[in-house]
Amino acid sequence: MEYTVRQLGVIRAGEDGFRIALEPEYRAALAGLEEFRRVNVLWWFSGCDGPDARAVRREEKPYVHGPEALGVFATRSPRRPNPIALSCAEVTWMDEAEGLVGLGYIDAEDGSPVLDLKPYTPSLDRVESPVLPGWCAHWPKSVEASGDFDWSGEFNF
Asked: Among 86, 95, 102, 142, which is least packed, fewest CB within 10 Å?
């Protein structure tokens, strides 16, 4: 079986903030998204795509406060069999005609390929009582609180 994934656009990150710039053929797909305050962005860890990164199955001490080793599926590491990332971002503005979606923040680098956008809906995306390992229980409880958290002291990758 063969699968085809198409790049819909790119992340733009710079002094003027964060935005998604869609290719012209996907701009019509934005209709109605402006009514949602948040969007789930599936994007490609393009800076970590290569045979060595795709071969990683375990990360040694990926988190400062975490265990000595974790399987890659128990991490947010960019080194994985398919370097696909998922980020929830605030939609700050939108220009459907130009195919632009302004974001409050996204943890992607400038030029990262965008694979898909999905509206954030609490009925499908929110878990009221998540169960987490103790080593990351001190992490923020929401995307909003994450902006003020010092993430630099958490990751080893």
From this structure: 142
Buried b (16+ CB within 10 A) or exposed e, 78-100: bbbeebebebebbbeebebeebb
In contact, 146 and 140? CB cutoff 8 Å = yes
Query: What does pTM read for this prediction?
Result: 0.92
∠ CA 10-34-121 to the nearest 5 degrees?
A: 90
CA-to-CA dists, residue 99 to 21, 37, 96, 140, angstroms: 6, 17, 5, 32
Q: Are 94 and 102 in contact (CB under 8 A)?
A: yes
Label residue 11 by pLDDT band (50, 70, 90). Answer: very high
